[in-house]
Amino acid sequence: VTTVDLGLSHTERYTTPLAAPKAINLIPQPAQLIALDGIFSLSADCVIAQAAPEAAGAIRWLQAELEQQCDIQLPLQRTGHIHYQLNSQLAASSYHLLVEQQEIWLQASDAAGFVHATASLLQLLPLTAEPQGHYAIPMVDINDHPHHGYRGMMIDCARHFHPLSRLKTFIDHLARYKFNTFHWHLTDDEGWRIEIDAYPELTEIGAWRGPNEALQPQYSHLSERYGGYYSKAEIKELIAYAADRGITIIPEIDMPGHCRAALKSLPRLLQDPDDQSQYSGAQHYTDNILSPALTGTYQFITNVLTEVAALFPAPYVHIGGDEVPDGAWTESPACQAFMAKHGYREPMELQSHILRFANEVLRAKGKRMMGWEEVIKGGGVDSQTVIYSWLSEQAGLQSAQAGFDVIMQPAQFTYFDLVQGYSPEEMGVDWAGKLPLDKVYSYRPLAELDPQDPVHQHLLGIQGALWCERVDTQQRFDHMIYPRLLALAEVCWSQPQLRQWDDFSARLHGQLHYLDQAGVQYRRCD
Ligand code: TNX
Predict the structure, then answer these.
(1) Cβ 184 under 6 angstroms from ligand 1
(2) Are residue 287 and residue 261 in the same domain, yes or no?
(3) Are residues 418 and 503 both part of a single domain?
(4) Ligand 1 center to residue 226 CA distance, Å?
(5) Closest residue to atom 12 of ligand 1, CA basis
(6) What is the position in ligand 1's atom list of the atom closest to the CA of 415?
(7) Which intervals hold domain Beta-hexosaminidase bacterial type N-terminal (predicted)?
(8) CA atoms within 13 A on the CB side of 186
(9) At residue 445, does pLDDT exceed 80?
(10) Cys-Cys link to 205, which of 259, 265, 307, 451 (CB 3.0-4.6 A)?
(11) Residue at a domain's end among 84, 118, 144
(12) Is 524 a domain residue?
């Protein structure tokens, strides 16, 4: 065993992976890794020992991955070589992984810990078998725990529809890199992607573009319908699939802005016929905002959120709340009367009115509301609302200082729709600058704050986001996400003092071989 002293306390003693007998390229970097001499030979003769119910999902995931990667089907029997053991001494989400010559031990105190231990084991698995047919897993002793509790990725499935199979593969990768949350952006101006029993129009109309349809005139030249939605059965399937892999799915129903698909699908309920307001949002839509003055708006919110709350087991629902532009609601007699009735002076108070209503619906269903940072405008929402800060690091700091729990998703460091290099052919937007891999890696949330400042308690974690205005194919999806996802994984998980760019780049090469084998069309590194 070669131990390298990095000047850390003895509890943080760390062995650099470079000292391992075989290259160990774990991402994210674990808190403590000791490389041992020798290998465990994994073959079709290996057996997984039956374990506590907390390990059931992780075991199913291990079996699925080994079948896919190695064509090996490991049985589950009373005794075996691979042991999932409950260890109540370990903190939530942390794990101990010990690979010995004859046995593998995965210890955790909860389902999340077992999944993360499995992720490390899967990363130790070589890409090719030895000539004798077995896979040589290097012997290691790993003690590991996450730095940030919430480690998420948002995918915009509204601007373009991503088929369920694409999302499943993506969830496999989220789990492999120890994320624990998938934020599912299901509705927007360009599409409504979730089946709602109360309003079949939302998916009959709102999920499709072209030919000759009202939703997106610029796509009316298309000769075939283009788009899609997720049925409730498919959503349940994805929730269960993600749950095995330790991933919670948080649904987002964006309101009161970004609602064009809903408005065009349900004009009888949602359209204010006398609204002459002139506005144009960030994406130039002039007709995408729910009206606070229509009873239909509240019926719609109640019915949709009730079905969403029943479908998703997560304790949270995200209600959007972003990008309502100036000018909204200003030239509507109904909105003016509504403002006078409630004594509101600013149009933004109307947004708060709608969001507070949504919050009541969710609270009655036992759910906590989440929203983009603009939800604190115009009188704002309940202080229990979780705020996703996206415009800047500074805005996140302010929300946390105001007492909100925050998820940091600053565009400058976490928006994977941003270009990632300097060539003019580079795909992506640059309204928040360029976002090369090393910039993602450099992100430190709330770094300006004194480490002892109690405001840190309001930082729940970090999220990356793929907005998909321009992401319509698997190739583009992969190109924008990978390998930046791996840099973000380490930002989310690893202890800050263990994060070193050169070391990460070296380990990344090992992971890129895996992505190649898995057919991921990642952006080549410079
Ligand atoms: C801002 S971030 C948006 C999205 C866009 C994205 C493009 C946020 C809450 N809203 O609607 O797709 O910028 O980068």
Answers:
(1) no
(2) yes
(3) yes
(4) 22
(5) 467
(6) 14
(7) 24-145
(8) 27
(9) yes
(10) 265
(11) 144
(12) no
What pTM did the predictor assign?
A: 0.94
Structural domain range at position 382: 150-517
Looking at the fold, whether 87 and 217 belong to one and the same domain comes out as no
Same domain, 21 and 164: no
| Strand 104-108 to 95-99 pairing | antiparallel
Read off the CATH number of the domain in which 86 is found.
3.30.379.10
Nearest to 82 by CA among 110, 55, 112: 55
Angle in degrees, CA 52, 58, 62, rounded to 5: 125
pLDDT single digits (tens) 351-398: 999 999 999 999 999 999 999 999 999 888 999 999 999 999 999 999
The residue whose CA is least distant from atom 8 of ligand 1 is 322
Residue 322, ligand 1, Cβ within 6 A: yes
Structural domain contains residue 30 = yes
φ and ψ of 231, to 5 deg: -70, 165
| Inside any domain, residue 298 | yes
Q: For residue 409, is pLDDT > 70?
A: yes
Q: How many A from CA of 48 to the centre of ligand 1? A: 45
Of 237, 323, 331, 360, the catalytic one is 323
Domain total of the chain: 2
